[in-house]
Amino acid sequence: MKVKSLDGYESRRIAVVGLGPRGVGALEALANLAGERGMRVSLDLFDPHPSPGAGPNFDPDESDLCRLNIPMRDIDLRAPAALQVASLSAWLEPPIGRDSFPPRARLGTYLQYRLEAVSDAPALEMTRIAAQVTHLEREGQAWFLKTDTRRHGPYSEVLLVPGQPATRPDDQLAAWQAHAARGHGTLAQAYPVRRLVQQGDDWAGKTVAVRGFALSSFDVIRALTMGAGGRFTGAGYQPSGREPRCIVPFSLDGHPPYPKPATEEVDARFEPTPDETDAFREAVTIAACASPNEARQRLTAALIPPVERTLMTQAPETAPDSVADWLATEWSDAGVQEVGTALDCVSEGIAMAEGTRPPTIGYVVGQVWRKWQDPLRQGYNPAETAPVTPALIVGFDEGLKRYSYGPPVAACRELLSLIECGLVSTGLSHDPDIALIDEGWRLASAGREVTAEVMIDAVLPSPDPHQVTDSLISGLIHVGWLTTLDDLAARTGPDGLLIGSDDRVVPGLSLLGRLALGSVVAADSLHDCFGAASRRWAEGALSRIADPAAASVNAVG
Ligand SMILES: Cc1cc2nc3c(=O)[nH]c(=O)nc-3n(C[C@H](O)[C@H](O)[C@H](O)COP(=O)(O)OP(=O)(O)OC[C@H]3O[C@@H](n4cnc5c(N)ncnc54)[C@H](O)[C@@H]3O)c2cc1C
Q: Whole-angstrom Cα distance, residue 499 to residue 520?
């Protein structure tokens, strides 16, 4: 095929900024489609991270204490068949059992294999540039990227897949940083966990508070216990003597997430029927473009049948009609119906995950919702959403993460053992008052108080691009190429093209992943990195490369 030119520049070069899992998924989609279309594309791949392909969250050098939140049986990192890559289960050596949750580091080595494999695809010619992109510029129809040392380009397409770049600390964290900098206590970050394990050597016998009681807090607690040489046995936790005196996790609602079903057999009890899933697909497609009220009604109507059917067999004493009431409250106030303590949540969660206790409505809703994450993305992501509806649907999905993104049941059993032996205290887990004191932090709630000499931040920063401090992203906002949805993240079209301040797509500039939350849903998942969003981007990019004239007409149309 003839190479067309843009303003005299060769037009087939693509820049990809970020080489985590989503970068790999995008390259695979591109390789496959370019191969099918008989095209050959040249790419520059920018990322300073030392583990290209894996990125920071699946870094092969990270501690094995950090587990994936998906059991082997459910991991499906789909690659186009033409690329002939081995599946994770076939590739892992030694293998990992179907009900086990692999260390994220091992996933990282697999993702690096996937990057190596796609590097061999005949349709792509790739150059890796281990540098941070600091700015983006446009000259005519061509893009140029700046790193610290030089200007790169021209490119006809730029794909941004930066994950969660550096973000401004929220007010609480900023105050704590200043407090710790004045010598009052130690403030540490959850990641990398391998660094936390080393820091933990200095914290033996101290009280360590953990801000955040979601998935990251499990990594932190493991780092401070098993990372310090402790072991879990049938008789409970066997300390090494190098642990903190006490670990005090806390969050706004004080509840840890619920574990996923322990076995395939228990998990199957929450499987929606194909008809129920078809009805959900239709509901999402309509809901995404509907008013908030209609969206809520459609999704509620799709959830009720599988949830009621499951409860009828698993928890027959649940009152009829209570599912609709539960969902109505969840839509308006996610999580408020969890009234038990953190300890209740852990022990009941374990029993429900093991199938030894009837599941609650919330647990069933959460498992069904987890099983519908793919249809949710497929229906929502390409849609032109109505105003306000994205915040509603994204908020509902985020709220249900306490079930749908749950940890392994083994991690909850470990937490329970640690609570039982007093090494973890959940007495202050529900939104404690926090005072800054000379020794560090004083946490108080309901007549109890504790002084923590160490505070660990285990809260994932906001995806709001306005909070990102990385100059690439703030520069895009400044020139109007990146605009945001109310209270959410970047506005993008169905194929990932950014929508600028003139309400038109920015030609050739795309963003995929967490920073587009609202334009897309359920982005914080490995599965999303290898899904339809990458294919839509690849289709759009290749079509524009093949026919730049049509692309520029579409961009302003
Ligand atoms: C601690 C943690 C644990 C997680 N665990 C799981 C899990 O168990 N299961 C799951 O499904 N999901 C998990 N996730 C969600 C996870 O974010 C995604 O699965 C996945 O990592 C997203 O991939 P990504 O490529 O979009 O972003 P990332 O993996 O963050 O990769 C982005 C890359 O972009 C690079 N980059 C950023 N800005 C620039 C720039 N300006 N120039 C050049 N390069 C740049 C970064 O260096 C980085 O390597 C976890 C997330 C976190 C934070």
A: 13
Using CB distances shorter than 6 Å, the residues near ligand 1 are 17-23, 46-49, 55-57, 68-70, 104, 132-133, 161-165, 191, 216, 460, 470, 472, 513, 524-526, 529
Q: Respond yes or no on whether the N-terminal peptide bond of residue 162 is cis (omega within 30° of 0).
A: no
- How confident is the model over 270-296, as pLDDT tens digits? 999 999 999 999 999 999 999 999 999
Task: Note the pTM of the prediction, 2 decimals.
Answer: 0.94
Q: 312-363: per-residue pLDDT in tens? A: 999 999 887 899 999 999 999 999 998 899 999 999 999 999 999 999 999 9
Q: Looking at the CA of residue 525, tell me the nearest atom of ligand 1.
A: 11
Rounded to whole angstroms, the Cα distance separating 271 from 424 reads 34
The alpha carbon of 219 and the centre of ligand 1 are apart by a number of angstroms equal to 16
Give the closest residue to 537 by CA, choosing from 504, 510, 516.
510
Instruction: Judge contact between 391 and 486, C-beta under 8 A.
Output: yes
Ligand 1 atom showing the smallest separation from residue 133 Cα:
42
d(CA 263, CA 542): 43
- Which tokens is 525 given? 């998942």
**pLDDT band with cut points at 50, 70 and 90 for residue 207:** very high
Token couple for 373: 């994450």
For residues 221 and 66, the answer to whether their CB atoms sit within 8 Å is no
Tell which one of 43, 57, 222 to mutate to probe ligand 1, the residue whose CB is within 8 A of the most ligand atoms: 57
CA–CA separation, 367 and 359 (whole Å): 10
